[in-house]
Design goal:
The protein is of the alpha+beta class and 119 residues long. The chain has a domain of 83 residues. It contains two helices and three strands, in the order ααβββ. The chain has a three-stranded antiparallel sheet, covered by helices on one side. Helix 1 packs across helix 2.
């Protein structure tokens, strides 16, 4: 009598795998908008730097950010929230914000973002 080993996945293993995938999908779906805002702010500041829009006054820099933001639609931050400083004769624009993303019930993710033109 020979015994053969069965291979495969059990029902419990399949259910556990599906639960893990569902949780990963939930996290991704909830956190994606916050990260899309982050990448949009990066894009705006990079475009402003490339086009020389960070060489004017503080108000001009903030207005330029708001103009570009009308296209991108970032809700987390606006022109008045930018921190504009001078380092070595150059303007450095920094955008820093925090976002609280509710996941399930009273469980939330707190995300801190910082984007700067400093090299």
């Amino acid at each position: 009598m020979t015994t053969s080993k069965q291979r495969g996945i059990t029902l419990t293993g399949a259910l556990m795998g599906m639960i893990v995938l569902a949780l990963a999908g939930l996290f991704a779906a909830k956190l994606l908008p916050a990260y899309l805002d982050y990448f949009a702010v990066q894009k705006i500041l990079k475009a402003m730097e490339t086009n020389g829009e960070i060489t004017g006054s503080v108000q001009a820099i903030r207005n330029a950010f708001d103009r570009r933001n009308t296209i991108e639609g970032v809700q987390a931050i606006s022109g008045p929230d930018l921190d504009v400083t001078k380092e070595g004769g150059e303007a450095v624009v920094t955008a820093a914000w925090s976002t609280k993303v509710p996941i399930v019930g009273n469980f939330s993710a707190c995300l801190d973002f910082t984007v700067t033109t400093a090299k």
